[in-house]
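worker-3 :: picked Helix-turn-helix transcriptional regulator
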Amino acid sequence: MARGKDIDGSISVPTFYGKELRWKREAAGLSLEAFLEGSFYGKTYLSDIEHGERRMPLDLARHADRVLGTDSFFERRCEDVRKARKSSHAEYFADVLELEKHALEFEEWDPMLIPGPLQLEPYIRAVVLSAYPAEPEGSLAAKVADRRSRAWLYEDKDSPESWIVLHEAVLLQPILPPNEMAEQLAHIAEVLRHRRAFAQLVPRKFGAHPFMMGMARFMTFADAPPVMYTEGMYSGQLIDDPVLVKQYSKAYGRLRAAALDPEASLNLIEQAAEDYRNGKQPHALE
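worker-3 :: tokens ->
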């Protein structure tokens, strides 16, 4: 459906910001395409920003200031828009939440944990409390609900295609009692059987491999350059430099080459779930 011409800038900070961008662009006599010349972005992406539906990346804000002669106005307002998008998620994760709504494909690696959108409530609670042991029950429940609301990324029938690489340690080092761990792994297997997401396991016997130092998540888009996100316990970093993202992407390819194939990996996840269900510890790959 075509959008209306008018934008109600009173709805939110992002729509106010977007409306100002459109006003400046049209006052300069620039079409979407003309404005974007010299950038990496598409006109749908820019239109979404003008309607307050996407956050403007810093490099595009700087591009806007150069093209429109706005004396760093849009660069300075980037932070205001980011802060306006509140949830129980950490502030450093806000940009990722915005971007994942528009991604065509996800590629993820985690050496120790199940990816957030695949985590069930007991697993989420355990992860949150490990980092914030004094978290009040109310905010803990909000964090659980917000994380489960992202399940669509892997579970919806129309979700983006995803590739997930996990370390064998995710199966062998349970953070839940056996019955709950069995349910969590069985849930992953069920999602994988729907074939919107594919998983590979990296056996610990394989020794050195790329990304041993932390998690990585890649997102690709139809109208913007790919990005990579990496995270620690209390911080996260979104990397959008094209050269660096390409270098990380090549390393991810080498990581996948070191992992087991998807069917063998899925069988091992199902077997680990069965072992926990029967009160057994899954065996490490020899």
